[in-house]
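re: that chain from earlier
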Amino acid sequence: MAVAHRRLSVGLGLAGLACALLGGCLLLLGPLIVRQQVIKNVRIDPSSISFQMWKDIPVPFYLSVHFFEVLNPKQVLRGEKPVLSQRGPYVYREYRVKTNITFHDNDTVSYLEYRQLFFQPHLSNGTEDEYIVVPNIMLMGAAVMVEKLPDLLKLLLSGALASLKQEAFMNRTVGEIMWGYEDPLIDAINMIVPGLLPFKGKFGLFMDFNNSNSGLFTVHTGMNNISQVHMVDSWNGLKKVDYWRSSQCNMINGTAGEMWPPFMSPTSLQFYSPDACRSMTLVYEESGQFQGVPTFRFVAPKTLFANGTDYPPNEGFCPCMQSGIQNVSTCRLNAPMFISHPHFYNADPSLVDAVEGLHPSKEQHGLFLDVHPMTGIPMSCSIKLQLNLYIKHVSGIIQTGQIKPVVLPLLWFAESGSIEGSVLKQFYTNLVLLPSVLEYLQYILLGLSVPLLVSAALLMARRKEHKVTESLRLKGPLEVIPNPCAQAESPSSAPSPDVS
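^ sequence. v structure.
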């Protein structure tokens, strides 16, 4: 029995010690193991898990386009406020594929990313054959562009517009506005004002968006410095652009907008957008979860499209108008185009009041990006922008009537996508579930070590106590031995004195 107790206490003690050591090792080494696995699998390397995801984005992306139809074009020509009605969405499935992938010796990789768009009737509220009344973008844009030219040229242009029966507003199909329509006006403008328009024949707002690339990106692979992975080294061979009036505004910062370096902090992120011709900074809003995956949500700050008066660092993007819109004419053929949030969300209220039919709200018109902070991989996103045209009466161009100056919304679009299906399952298993199991296992082992060691100690203590008790029992009760000295000194045993 004693041998069994001894073996049990030794076994419990060894098990407790093993749990404590293993739990301690996991506590110290577990985060390092997870970190190394993340670094190994998020860098741009053909052997990494995320490489194929980076090369051929498996996430289903959708482009949703909403047009603003002008309901009162005749009244606008007389100087009245435009009344708008939102049409759509017209939804397109977007496919992105990287080609010409070339690795360089300085830990960078270059590539071209092509986009293809396919109309999705079942997701759309309307067809591409529907007609919409919108401003004649070519005419109204050209009118503002030639405003400061000699009156003779403007009269010639106005006469050419009249002969071509061009008016300030046009009734075109969604497909024509999106992908282009033949317009003799383009050749007429180029004949009267050579070089004003660097294209000919056909015009469409998204004509260069489909079956095209967004420029040659060169980004860091992160092979030697994971904090630089996906960060843009150059775009079309440029370290900075020359669209704007300050070096800060011309900087190419952040990534290409698809992935970010891992181990993110809840502060901000940056990316370069060729469509907006500038780098953008989003700020941390809150932590959350997407299908069980922890995320950081990043949103656009109010200063993103603020003018130089309200936010001095944006002075380089001027000439500016009200806050909330950005003049992109310098990178859009000098046309009076402005970008903003949809429905002028986060913009100066005067922009909303200048037209009827806008209802800005954060839920419908605010952009967001939900990123897994450990890997820097987006889980869900919706990037929303609005395209606006500045229109006004231009002296000498009779087609502009008495139009009052107004930044008129043309359309807004959202590029949205989220990880799902087998990709999400693999991501969750490898980068969320397994690290969580390791984390919980270390605490379970440390927790088990305490009762095992305590049990072993108690058993050993009880065994020692039992041995002492057994030893005393075997020796028996102690006998009382009389003290002879005490008997000799007793008065009753002393001799009587001799009295004789």
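The first helix runs from residue 2 to 42.
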